[in-house]
Design goal:
alpha+beta; seven-stranded antiparallel β-sheet
Length: about 150
């Protein structure tokens, strides 16, 4: 089953992708809570989904000065569904980590396949692979991060 090109880990975003700015703290915490070391931190978030193929979530963490702290990209693809079109076999890929002030990146890549009998609360891990990031993946995450932040600042 072919899926949209944007539903590929570290791929370019479609032109219409919406970027949202979200605080790390709830409105209640902002209004009543004490000031904390992360009071001004926020996320730039992109959520996209295709009901037939899967979903993608991109999240970028910024400090109070809009300095990049961390970024991640997550994709879930439906490989098989039941008669109600509930996913019963899904592939999950995640890539993300922290961007250090010295320019280095500390992160990981996770690939996993989950199976369930139509109950998403009862999934079984079929395969899982953690590995360190490649330089190509780090560069792709950096390009994706720059694109998301440019869209946020428009």
């Amino acid at each position: 089953m072919s899926h949209p090109s944007w539903l590929t880990l570290l791929s370019a975003l479609p032109n219409g992708a919406v970027v949202e700015k979200r605080s790390l703290r709830s409105a209640e915490q902002i209004r009543t809570g004490p000031v904390s070391p992360i009071s001004g931190w926020h996320h730039a978030v992109v959520d996209m989904s295709d009901p037939v193929h899967g979903s993608r979530h991109i999240q970028i963490l910024l400090d109070e000065n809009d300095e990049l702290i961390a970024a991640s990209d997550f994709v879930m693809l439906f490989r098989d569904t039941n008669e109600r079109h509930d996913p019963t076999l899904t592939d999950h890929q995640s890539f993300g980590g922290r961007f250090e002030k010295d320019g280095s990146f500390r992160g990981t890549h996770l690939g996993m396949t989950l199976a369930n009998a139509g109950d998403p609360e009862c999934s079984t891990v079929r395969t899982a692979q953690y590995r360190p990031p490649t330089e190509i993946e780090i560069a792709a995450l950096r390009r994706l991060t720059d694109d998301v932040l440019n869209r946020l600042r428009r």
